[in-house]
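Hello again,

I reread your note about wanting to compare the complex against the isolated chains. To keep things tidy I'm splitting this into two emails, and this first one only covers the full assembly. Below are the input lines as submitted, including protein chains and any nucleic acid or small-molecule components. They are followed by the predicted structure of everything together. The single-chain runs will come separately.
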Amino acid sequence: MSGRPKIFDDQEVIGKATELFWRQGYEATSTEDLLAAMGIGKGSFYLAFKGGKKELYEKVLEQFNEKAITRSKKELAASKDPIEFIRNFFRSIVTSPKKIHQKGCFFGNAIAELSNTDILLMRKAANHLKELEELFHDALTIAQKNGQLKNQQDPALLARTLLSNWNGLGITRRIYPDNEILSELIEMQLKILE
Amino acid sequence: MSGRPKIFDDQEVIGKATELFWRQGYEATSTEDLLAAMGIGKGSFYLAFKGGKKELYEKVLEQFNEKAITRSKKELAASKDPIEFIRNFFRSIVTSPKKIHQKGCFFGNAIAELSNTDILLMRKAANHLKELEELFHDALTIAQKNGQLKNQQDPALLARTLLSNWNGLGITRRIYPDNEILSELIEMQLKILE
DNA sequence: AATGTTTTGTACTAAATGGTAAAGAACATA
DNA sequence: TATGTTCTTTACCATTTAGTACAAAACATT
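Full-complex prediction:
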């Protein structure tokens, strides 16, 4: 019932594939590239991911979201000031290593690349970003209730604006890979939270 | 001195290639796709564009920028109210046909896809977006001088913020392909111009 | 009509790519 | 040790793709 043992862990190789997809995008990444990065052979790969590259990409999106969202939710829950949580979220662009943040937003990249070639994958990425918007929304409603946010505009609209700002920074930070400029820009965007 | 006549015009076929690149992105578009769209054969193609797909893409970026920027500069010059020009620029997202605007910002897409695989092409797209930022900057300084803009913050920072908002909308409009939602979002972003 | 020039069309090559198939390796259980 | 099961490895195939080469076509000039 239990044959030859697997030499790899699914979630682990999905994580390794993430880096490639994030840096090169979906189309520019070949299955052979992925195999090399994951350290497994074709046979194992197509057995574990019968849908090939596409199925792998879906799982990469899923895992990425899982990791990012659960961590952020914990951070928000642990935070005394939901507004400060949002600020830190945006400021992480300039505090995180350049190598990472220069790749932009993984989901934003996916939408940009795939919205006209693979609607299914694009929609998956879009839904994950909606979860981020929801997180903003949660933080804002809490803050308004606690009197930690003067701005009394519709939290749904505010959250959506934050998401769009986030999407923008995913592109702009590659036009201006300069922490000074980005910081100034981010603080400008964050004025909406005053 | 003048051999067999060309059956196509360079700028014209560059225009035809634009649509494909814009919709599918760089990697997902094969040279054969392009040949079909441009309506020419391999021989002609590689004679006119010795650098192949990459050279064609560069020229597509260039032509796109040329068209968009010159048109916008004229619009700004013809406008009595520079702020209204900017507003219209953003509102064009909801007024233009869905088929077009759902492809997002061509330059933004290029940056998202190519920033880690082809720095040269990415930088070209980035520079074109900087020209757009310059246009915003021009409009803002004129408006401030004319007293048409109460907001007295640094026009350079305002222009950069507008650019980033634009980049964001290029992604967000595909997450929310709904004119009501987009309109609300755009008006929110434009409050910076009050 | 002959010549020179530029473009076109097609045939071809070489490499990359996605995916399948089958043999055997590594386990658990009986 | 024999058997059944699952995973791995490698070989293989078919297709797509980028790019080149070359003969012929379509002009202008002489």
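For quick reference: Chain B touches chain A at residues 23-25, 27-28, 102-104, 108-109, 111-113, 115-117, 122, 126, 129-130, 157, 160-161, 163-172, 174-176, 181, 184-185, 188-189 (CB under 8 Å).

B.
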